[in-house]
Design a protein that fits this description.
CATH topology of the largest domain: Alpha-Beta Plaits
Order of helices and strands: HEEHEEEEEEHEHEEEEEE
CATH class of the largest domain: Alpha Beta
Number of strands: 15
Distance between the termini: 52 Å
Helix content: 10-25%
Length: 200
């Protein structure tokens, strides 16, 4: 018990089952659902999870009513001639959660976290995560991408991603907008019509 709150533990067997969930059985990407990250009160933390524990941790945070953000994407895999479409974390090994010291302590009691990273620049993290969430809500296909330190900074001028800012990368006739998440040193990229971008 922690301050009168029962601490739930998720077994390793349950953890394995959570890895093979049907799409509609996955935890929500953002909790509370239908909220904006900037409107969630508290301090954001980054949980560096043990291998393949992101979804288990998300379910646990949801049970405790702790706000979190776990960006996920569908990935097509072919095994024995059959197509599978597992839902996988966009940033493997990381879950973002928001709360006070009590929330941080509760998250650590799950035994699913290797380390909790303190976020010094809360405003930057929220802005970066809001862009990732905006892209996911618009059903834009996001893929992990190397973190970029240099490039042409651009803003989306129209469509469901209007206002989003990132680094444009051109490959042949295709343009990609790369969204960095500085605290992780990782990024995600999406294909976009170059005509929708303006330089900053």
């Amino acid at each position: 018990m922690l301050g009168g709150t029962l601490i739930y533990k998720v077994s390793d067997l349950e953890c394995k089952r959570l890895l093979m969930l049907k799409p509609d059985e996955n935890p929500p990407i953002l909790y509370p659902e239908q909220s904006q990250l900037a409107q969630i009160n508290g301090c954001w933390w980054v949980a560096h999870t043990k291998a393949r524990n992101e979804k288990v941790l998300a379910w646990q945070l949801l049970k405790w009513n702790i706000a979190y953000f776990l960006p996920m994407r569908e990935k097509v895999r072919v095994r024995k001639g059959r197509r599978h479409r597992p839902i996988l974390p966009l940033f493997s090994g990381y879950v973002f959660f928001c709360g006070d010291e009590d929330a941080r302590y509760k998250a650590l009691t799950t035994n699913r976290i290797a380390n909790v990273i303190e976020v010094k620049d809360q405003v930057l993290l929220v802005r970066e995560l809001e862009q990732i969430n905006q892209a996911l809500q618009s059903k834009t296909k996001l893929d992990p991408y190397p973190f970029l330190k240099k490039g042409d900074l651009c803003r989306v001028t129209a469509g469901p991603l209007v206002g989003m800012e990132g680094i444009m990368v051109r490959k042949r006739n295709n343009a990609k907008l790369v969204l960095n998440v500085a605290i992780l040193g990782q990024a995600a990229a999406m294909e976009i019509d170059a005509d929708l971008l303006e330089p900053l």
